[in-house]
Structure prediction request, 322 residues.
Amino acid sequence: MENTTPAISFNAVQPIQPYKRKLVGVRRVVAKKKIEGHCTAVTVDNWTVVGFTSQMNRFKIGDLVVFMEIDSFIPRIDRYWELWSSMNDVFNGEIGLRVRSREVSGTYSQGMIFPLADFPEIVLHHQNRIQKIGKDEATRELLSFSIADSLGIKKWEYPTHVRPVTGIIGELSPLIQRPGNYRIQDIGHSVFNTQAAKNRIYQVTEKLDGVTVHVYKVSNQSPDLLTYFPALKPTTGSIPIPPTMQTPRGRVGVCNRKHEFFDDGKNIYWETAKMSGILDKIHKIPYRNIAIQGELVGSHIQGNTMQYPEGKHEFVVFVSGT
Prediction:
């Protein structure tokens, strides 16, 4: 039986702001120690970066530095000429360096750091803000910024799909929240260093190496919501709208992180959703409008790092709780 609660009014609809990872930012050095092999580990916030001691001697506890997280892709441009000899990665046809996790003398290194002085435009901005709002507030502001775009840094990703994705009909609706979680290194101080944290039980879960999938239904009784979704129309020819997408009760959609798709019989997202049984189950959920989020994993996704048999794909639903 469908939920008979009133549909959300048009005035109450609020598009959701997507989470954005701070891939590159200014951080403060909080610890430093020598380890084996003529190396030194420098800690910025809760991230540890290991390098040769001769290089790490440039940094002192309390210094502000530019920190690039793992999976930052540093392009082969003049600013980063000292790294050119290490730039053997290719991303979207561009040569550069992918920042990776690595183990050095028993210590994990995650990221790269650079002296703030190597980026005079950031230093100048900070100095100007100090004059206007004071040093403490200007520094807090600087530490909150994401500066990847301004420095030409992109997030490195595997080619998402081996087989082409078909049937794109529009952008992901702003009413559907894009999943995203902070890395524990960035929030560990607020999660674990509290009195309440001592009485919590924590569960370790596996991070699947896949791509985001959203499956939603919107009732015909909520026409105001339907205006936030792309029009139902095939991308080629005059294929009729299939019953998987339009039911007597409303509309059903399948999307990834950026786009919504037409069920053309070839789209990998739709085909996996069908095999999972989620399209039948979503109609049994007693809510008029709902979106279910999960991860598409399988042999044609993210370079098959999870080693699925050829042709096998799964839709794994995100589950959260206490």
